[in-house]
Amino acid sequence: MSDKIVLTGIKPTGTPHLGNYVGALKPLVEMSKSNKTFMFIADLHALNFMRDAAQLRQHTYEIAAILVALGLDLKNAVLFRQSDIVQVPQLSTMLMNVTPKGLMNRAHSYKAAMDKNTAAGLDTDAGVNMGLYTYPILMAADILLYNSDIVPVGADQKQHVEFARDIAGYFNNIYGETFKLPEPVIGEDSGIIPGLDGRKMSKSYGNVIPLFAGAAELKKKVMRIITDSKLPDEPKDPDTSTIFQLYKNFATPAEIADLRQKFVAGGMGYGTAKTILFEKIDSVLSAPRAEYERLMANTAELDKILDDGAARARVVAEQTYARVRRAMLG
Ligand code: ADP
Ligand code: TRP
Predict the structure, then answer these.
(1) Do 276 and 166 share a domain, yes or no?
(2) Nearest CA to ligand 1 atom 2
(3) Which of 17, 185, 255, 268 could form a disulfide with 262 if both were Cys (CB 3.0 to 4.6 A apart)?
């Protein structure tokens, strides 16, 4: 058991896919086995563009059910809704006062919105609300509130974690040592999971395989994976094949070596390879999928898990916030 505190937030904005599973969810569940982990569903972060409360609630349940179904260790992991901790928006308000506006102007999330507007010939701030603009401050509040040491995030979120460090530093300079400085930990790029069309699997490309698709849908998606036009007899390159790249993340080393051999030797058509891939993913995910479905049909059980998590998170949040109040207000 490591003594490092791990923290991460997952935005409830869509149904997770196999890329999210391999790149983020599975490693988080693994990490929860050896670290005290704060893991929350970042519903407040979704508010700057999600306007449908029922949908937000549904996606929140989905993420919670997925993590529990994948075996999140609920002894080490504190799983909760971001919005259940009132100290998050409170701390965010406090941190606003030590955060230079210029830092927000440089945030990737805001710059991306401005670039999109410029490209469309619109005013640079068109459609930008203050939730989007101050997004990194809210994220800093999340990170600093729970005394996090390690924040595992995708590469796109690294700058936000660095901002949390910067903001903690500004605060500590003015008010004395109050916050621990967190470290971002970036998942490896080599682990990018390709989607049906061979590009990175991503909601924005519409090329995803949903993590808990039923067996029939999973099969249909796998059969739609784009391949080159090599005939069954021809040798094939596993390293450029989406089928093989996906298989690698679900099979044992011996099974992977076996499929590699079948690709290289020739004699196996892509249809057969897809069937092997489908059966493997289905066998690995069928038990967690059943548990996921059970939980989604029992949201009261999920509420209980999330409420318990919030109660545990609140203990730490109250202590940190009390320190901040004392430092700032006496
Ligand atoms: P999307 O691109 O579908 O919008 P997100 O940006 O919401 O996905 O991804 C959330 C996390 O899931 C990322 O931080 C990253 O770690 C992981 N992830 C997403 N897509 C992939 C992928 N194709 N391969 C590996 N990891 C991925
Ligand atoms: N902003 C992150 C994302 O878009 C989600 C998030 C919110 C987060 N608060 C966090 C991640 C704190 C890590 C730590 O994916």
Answers:
(1) no
(2) 202
(3) 268
Please report whether residue 204 resides in a domain.
no
Minimal-distance CA residue to ligand 2 atom 6: 9
Same-domain pairing of 9 and 68:
yes
Residues within 6 Å of ligand 1 by CB:
19-20, 22-24, 154, 187, 191-193, 200-204
Residues 137 and 247 in one domain: no
Give the sheet arrangement for strand 183-186, strand by strand: 77-81, 36-41, 5-10, 150-153, 183-186
Same domain, 59 and 131: yes
Task: Determine, yes or no, domain membership for 16.
Answer: yes
Q: What is the residue range of 265's domain?
A: 212-292
Residue 205 lies in a domain: no
Single out the residue of 202, 122, 115, 120 nearest to residue 154, CA to CA. Answer: 202
Residue 321, domain member (yes or no): yes
In angstroms, what is the span from residue 23 Cα to ligand 1's centroid? 6
Per-residue pLDDT of 27-76, as tens digits, reads 899 999 999 999 999 999 999 999 999 999 999 999 999 999 999 999 99
Instruction: With cut-offs at 50, 70 and 90, classify the pLDDT of residue 188.
Output: low
Q: What is the pLDDT of residue 8?
A: 93
Query: Of all atoms in ligand 2, which is nearest to the CA of residue 135?
Result: 1
What share of the chain has pLDDT > 90, as a percent? 92
Statement to judge: residues 60 and 164 lie in one domain: yes
Q: How far is the CA of 68 from the centre of ligand 2 (A)?
A: 19
**Residues 283, 5: Cα–Cα separation, whole Å:** 33
264 and 134 share a domain?
no
Q: Does the pLDDT value for residue 87 go beyond 90? A: yes
Whole-number Å distance, alpha carbon 256 to ligand 2 midpoint, is 34
Which ligand 1 atom is nearest residue 16's CA?
3
Q: How far does the centroid of ligand 2 lie from the alpha carbon of residue 321, in Å? A: 20
The model's pTM is 0.93
